[in-house]
Structures are given as C-alpha cells and as structure tokens.
Amino acid sequence: MTVSDERGRRIASVADEAPLDTRVRVPWPVDVVRTLRPLQRGPWDPCHRVVAGAVWRTSRMNTGAVTYRLTQDGPHGARCLAWGPGASELVDRLPALLGADDDPSGFVPEHPLLVEAHRRMPALRITRTGRVLESLVPAILEQRVHGVAAFASWRRLVTWFGDPAPGPAPEGMRVPPSAATWRTVPSWEFHRANVDPGRARTVVRCAQVADSLERLVHEPAADARRKLRVVPGVGVWTAAEVAQRAFGDTDALSVGDYHLAKVVGWALLGKPLDDPGMIEYLEPLRPQRYRAVRLIVESGGYAQVPKRGPRTPITDHRRR
User: Membrane-crossing residues (predicted)?
Assistant: First the structure.
C-alpha cells in the first residue's frame, strides 16, 4: 500500500510489518515539531522529515535501526509509531526525546523578548536523544563551512552509506551509517561529498572511539562536553552542538558560530555582538543559556539581523 499526502504526492510505501504503537506523556507541555526541530539538518535531511504535522525520523539504536513517526497527542504528549529492530529501545527513550528531563522552572529571564517568547512558547522543550555519533558527525560536517554545503554533504553521505529506513517512511529517508561504516568510508567518497580532508579525518577519528563517546550520555553535561573536546578536531562549538541534542544540555552555548552572536545581539540589544560580548551578556542566564538561544531563534531572531553584503561563498572542495 502507498501513503500519500494531501496533494497526492507519494510519501511512503507501507511494509507488512506492524508498527509498535505507543502514546507517551511528559511532565511539561511539549510542542513535538518545535522541540525536535534542532535535530533536522537542512530541509532534505534523509533522517528527519516533517509531513503534514507528523515528524518522521530514523535512528540507529544499540538494538538496531528504527523508523518512527511522532504526532502531537494533547498538550503533554505524543503518539509514536515505530518500525524496525530498534523500535522498543526507541520507545524507552521517548520521554527524554520529548523533554521529560528538561525542567524549565529555573528559567526566569528579564529581557522583554525572552519573557514574551517564554510565555508564548511554554511547550518548547530541550530534547535529549542519547545518541552521540548521530549528532556529532553532522556537526563536524558543519564546521567552518556554509550550512547549505554542510547539509548537502550530510545528505549525500547518509544516502550513499546509510541503510534503508525500516517500515514505511517518506521517500528518500535513510538510517544514519553505523560507526563501523563511518570508519570505512574512503577519503575519495568524502571528497565526492564536498568534505575536505580535515573534517573527513575528524569523522573517522570519532567513529573509531564511538563506543567511548556514546557512554558520555551518562555523565554530567559539562563533563561530557569537556571529554568530547579531547578528540582532535572537536572544538567548543562542535561539542556544544552535540550537547544540545544528545545530552539535552540547556546551557550549551555554540561559541564560535558564524552567525549566533550577531543574532543574539540584534535580537536583545538591537546591535551586533561578538562571542565574548554574547558570553558576557548571557552569563546571568546560566544554566539556561541554550534555552534562551532557542527562544530567540524560534522568535525569528535571524530575521532581525540586517542583510548587508553578499552571502558567504560556498566552497566546493571537489574542485581541489
């Protein structure tokens, strides 16, 4: 059987496998689409799609691959349909994925924009996937390059080396490659995906110590961030990007981001900030600085930055 959207476009071929059907409740209101938005790497991410209000994702659990479909089920919950050998493990992780571990009660901002955004978006939660490599590889690909190029590299590599999504899924979805697969991706395939040798080496290096990195989810977030940075090629920015998603770290600030300090400055002060200025200004919000950034972004913070000059050029490493 084929599933189509409201315009008649094919989105899935339904396999015979019956899904694991679960409803989950969390202590706080949760907006499923908004809470999981940081997990999507570009509009054509083969591991994350939003179709007619439903979030489709693929992941690689310890027990195997999984495809799952999440839909809003009341203000405090979601309904999940999951396929594949990793389905039961995914269901066990659902509360954390939907922000059950994220207690927003300590967030008391004073800036009017943050106060209003927090009031309007009480269901914005900080997700916790518990899957380190799945957040780490795309973060490495996004180092020092234009986001459009990084998203394209991620899409190519997952499409080429990932596995077919179990059960039904929007067309083109794939399961992220395993650590064993990342370790064996040839250098020329990274090059073909427009990934320079430095980032390629970092991906392979992280895949080689993936078991140790996955265990970091059991440590305090600040310690886990510090230990991530021990791996050559993983800096402050990359560790923060992973912590935000895999550890549910409400304080992980992406220092070194090309745009973030300017976005925070224009949104909160009406002028640009640099990284030291952003760190100083957000210091009173510890340990909730990432929550503040999420509220700024969801409130349209990027649109407040004046457009001056041409866009950053996209480097094509395949021509080198």
Answer: none
